[in-house]
Amino acid sequence: MRTRVLRRPGDGPAELVSSHDLDPPDRGWSWVDVTLGENDDADALNSVGDHFQLDRVAVHDARGDPDLPKFDDFGHHLLVVLHGLRDDRIASYELDCFVSARVLVTVRRHDSASIDTLWDALQRSTDLAEGGVDELAARLADVLTRRLLSVVDAFDERLDGLIAQALAADDRLLSDLTAVRADLAAIRRVAHPQRETLDELRHTRSPLLSDAARRRFSDVFDVAARAVVDLDGARSALTETLEAYRGAEARRATDVTRMLTVYAAVLLPLSLVASFFGMNHQNLPTIGQDWGWVAVTAVMAVMASTSLGIFVATGWIRRPSGRATGATIGRGLIEAARTPAQLVGAVYEISVLPIRTVASRTRTPPRNNRPD
């Protein structure tokens, strides 16, 4: 188990202190970040929980049982379970946040670019470190939730390539669609409960959360709501892309059938002429003339040219287009996992400018009603 402690004793940025110095300062707050290993002893985490009088069942669940995002109020401390985007693949990791009056304890099993980004920024920025533990937890929720949006942004960039593959009836589209759908499902599975958890936090009347923290959680809820709507829209876009692919396949099959019909229609009269003059009769026309085969061949050429001319005139035969069908894409949305964490909304003061969602491409209309 790896433990690190960040402390803000008063004014100014936060400071990294010894992992054995868990108690908060007289003024300010402390953030105790615990990263569990594969075979860590439960007593090590329980000792941290007992030091801050955290609920033993909640601490046990944080160590072993995976949970979806949720919110529990234990009176003297809160448990907020959030999920963030992993750095190595499109999947989420669980982050258990215990929020008390002046201490934030986070427990996780995976490395987190979001936590590391916020951790470093708190040591450099005085403005970011201002406020209590409740606002610190809201800033952490903001960074985690914004990273989930990177999956949506990666999908938006891939969508044009998927549509180009669908219209070209690319055989690799099905495997690409499956990979993208699996990536979206992995994030969508936690985005919905995370939105509901943030909704509970912005409406809770717990004395451990100030009005400023509730307003921050309200803005983070907007980010989560946009992620949910965009993920649902991405799912619909994948269905439409699959339908476009099926239509393109049917069109390609129709083109093949049409071409075979053209060949058959052109060769059928020629086969009829060849069969007629191939009969074993001595009195066939021009059968005894030296120029007979020339005349028959000329008639067959005229018949073939006429048939082709008719098909061209009716539009069955078109000149092939040289337009490129577009570049293919890779599997999945792994680029989203490499997207750096953002601190866009976390740096603003509530009294000056409320947090807003990051500007990005979205297919949803702006919301007319802001939450309280």
Can you characterise this structure?
The protein is an alpha+beta fold and 372 residues long. Helix content is 51%, strand content 12%. The protein has 8 helices and 7 strands; from the N terminus they run βββααββββαααααα. It has helices at 42-51, 56-63, 113-124, 126-129, 133-167, 173-203, 211-277, 292-314; strands at 2-8, 15-17, 29-35, 70-73, 78-85, 92-99, 103-108. It has a 7-stranded mixed sheet, sandwiched between helices. A hairpin with a 6-residue loop joins strand 5 (78-85) and strand 6 (92-99). Helix 1 packs antiparallel against helix 2 (56-63), helix 5 runs antiparallel to helix 6 (173-203) and helix 6 runs antiparallel to helix 7. The radius of gyration is 34 Å and the shape is rod-shaped.
The rounded Rg comes to: 34 Å
Task: Report on the biggest sheet.
Answer: 7 strands, mixed
Biggest sheet, strands in spatial order? Answer: 2-1-3-7-6-5-4
Name the helix and strand elements from N-terminus to C-terminus, one letter apiece.
EEEHHEEEEHHHHHH
Net shape = rod-shaped
The percentage helix is 40-55%
Q: pLDDT below 50 for ≥5 consecutive residues: which ranges?
A: 321-330, 348-372
- The tally of strands reads 7
Q: Helix tally?
A: 8
Mean pLDDT value = 81
What's the structural blueprint in terms of helices and strands?
Elements: E1 2-8, E2 15-17, E3 29-35, H1 42-51, H2 56-63, E4 70-73, E5 78-85, E6 92-99, E7 103-108, H3 113-124, H4 126-129, H5 133-167, H6 173-203, H7 211-277, H8 292-314
Parallel strand pairs: 3-7
Antiparallel strand pairs: 1-2, 1-3, 4-5, 5-6, 6-7
Helix pairs in contact: 1-2, 5-6, 5-7, 6-7, 7-8
